[in-house]
From TrEMBL:
Pfam families: Phage_GPD. This is Late control protein. InterPro entries: Baseplate-like_2-layer_sand, Phage_Baseplate_Hub. It comes from Novosphingobium guangzhouense. It comes from the Bacteria.
Amino acid sequence: MADANIAGLRLTLDGVDLADKINPRFVGLSLSEKRGGEADELSLTLHDADGRLALPEPGKVISLALGWKSGTDVTVGLVDKGRFTVDEVELTGPPDQVQIRARSADLNGEYRKRRTTAWKNTTVGAILQDIASRNGIAAKVHPDLADKAITAIDQHGKSDMAFVKDLGSRYDAVATWKDRNLIFMPVGSATTASGATLRSLALTKRDGWSWRFTRAQRDEYGGAEAAWHNQVTGKKEKVSTGSGKKKRLKRVYASEADAQQATDAEAAKRKRGAFQFEYELATADTRLQPNLRVTLSGWNTTIDAITWLVASVDTTMGSAGLKQRITLESA
């Protein structure tokens, strides 16, 4: 007889295993993993009919591992989903329940503080190492981006969180804070920031239930252009990428190389994401993560021909078992 697919999870609070406290009270959880600058979000719902559940204080750190305890058509084992800092606790009733919400950016709040800092003649990796260090975490910067030269850049009145997001846009990179790491890697990269090979995924109509394909209307721009300040002549000059009407970037860059990097990234972003695909998987795979490459087959010539990237993964666990919905965008 085939083993039933049985989901499992492991939760710890500040390093203490919560199995004895959580298992009899567990109602459900949801986990949203994103590729953009936002932190991942965890929501945990527990019974509290006896009013004896100890509530975690905001700032406490929850670690989550999620996956399958048994099953014949799943990969058995729990996948580490990282650390989440509690930022909200809500009590509701009846029935009496506690909902705990937490985010993956388990920092001390300083990363939201506005700062003014300037860097000159440096690299992307060095800047991110500086930012990570002052937040007490590590920076994991992909080798393709770490040595990118920056002539000059200012963090003027922006938080570290906003500034890193801007850098991600400037280099068309995944820029996010997860599990006490500042991660910076090219969108669609075949390897992680640490150099490990990212798995790819092939899906058919047999692998899921409901799906939705969307084709977004492209905007009027076929490229981008940016100005840079020529230190020799004292004049502004321009660089551009793409064809047709070009989006003009507002910032004036310190060098031609900086300006060209920004226009190339803007053009890549505008080319990507013209198509979107949402898919409810029949069997959740907790190894899935944003930025993985996906191929689809069995729909039609348009959908099947597109190279897809995972933009977000939403996982739920409750009375209906372990469920997952992924959002893809064209690469």
